[in-house]
Specification:
311 residues; alpha/beta; D-Maltodextrin-Binding Protein, domain 2; 6-stranded mixed β-sheet; globular
């Protein structure tokens, strides 16, 4: 069952993180509430590897220059769960997470949101999740999928994904479908691109993924137009935040927040390489706060058999 898998996954991640902590590489903080080294966790993007390398190199130099400290970047390819556990163990200081990942991190690791994507006019950015099938699937509508769920295999993205797990699970609950029992089989693909490719290779009959993934893969010539058919699109979701772990001084958190918000103005070349959403114009980085995620927190707490958030 998915819920049992979730519990096991977080136990495994906790044990892995504890083992990592034993190596003694937890960086000390100064008595000013600043880290001696800033450790930034990033999720692999969908752009070409060379483009991502250029962006990350520029980000490392920019933050190091602005904050006057060494910066280390860590790839979080194992999913948000590992990053959350690393934050709990003071192994990661800053991370970009999905909104649901942040909600879990705020509960489990006391993480704080400091920056969100938005627009020049002050609005917070947004994106959506989907449920999709491949081009040749006999499933034509979301109603077909629900009606034939017992015959179908389904892939979520990650247990802490907003657009690849939470909203799909909430939708299934709203139509009386229990994905733990009512699909032939469910699985996790670990990231949105893998979810799309798992669908395309026929390993599952239907899959969850972020709305923009098919278009991005088409641009990379990994898919052709129409290879993936979307059956359902979620309501708008708050944009992914950049979060910081507990323990730092308020002055350092404000300094870090301002450095990130200033990227479009202070380093236009870095900003050109930044992964922007196609869902809203004139993107910028805005100061964020926890209240921006209250509506999503309510959705998460109303999903049955989901105990990742404390009540």
């Amino acid at each position: 069952m998915v819920v049992k898998k979730l519990a096991l996954a977080f136990v495994v991640l906790s044990l892995a993180c504890c083992a990592a902590c034993a190596d003694g590489r937890v960086s000390a903080e100064t008595n000013t509430g600043r880290p001696s080294v800033l450790r930034y966790s990033y999720a692999p993007g969908v752009e070409e590897p060379q483009a991502q390398t250029i962006r990350l190199d520029r980000l490392k130099r920019y933050l190091s220059d602005r904050l006057k400290m060494p910066v280390e970047l860590y790839k979080s390819s194992a999913g948000y769960g590992m990053v959350i556990e690393a934050m709990r163990a003071n192994k990661v200081d800053v991370a970009t997470m999905g909104p649901f990942g942040y909600l879990i991190a705020s509960e489990k690791a006391r993480a704080e949101v400091i920056v969100v994507s938005g627009t020049k006019h002050g609005g917070q950015g947004e994106y959506r999740g989907t449920i999709a099938v491949s081009r040749n699937s006999p499933i034509k509508t979301i109603e077909d999928l629900v009606a034939h769920s017992k015959e179908l295999t389904f892939s979520f993205v990650d247990p802490a994904s907003t657009s690849g797990f939470l909203v799909q699970r909430a939708y299934f609950q709203s139509v009386g479908l229990d994905p733990d029992k009512d699909f032939k089989k469910t699985m996790f693909s670990t990231n949105h691109i893998a979810s799309a490719m798992t669908l395309m290779t026929g390993k599952v009959d239907a899959a969850a993924m972020m709305e923009t993934i098919p278009g991005r893969l088409i641009k990379r010539h990994a898919l052709q137009e129409g290879d993936i058919r979307v059956l359902w699109v979620s309501p708008p979701l708050p944009s992914s935040p950049i979060v910081v772990r507990k323990g730092f001084s308020e002055s350092f958190k404000r300094e870090l927040q301002q450095a990130l918000v200033d990227i479009p103005e202070k380093d236009p070349e870095l900003w050109k390489t930044w992964p922007h959403s196609n869902n809203y114009p004139d993107p910028v980085l805005l100061p964020g706060d926890d209240s921006m995620f209250d509506a999503l927190r309510t959705i998460a707490r109303n999903v049955k058999n989901l105990s990742l958030l404390e009540q």
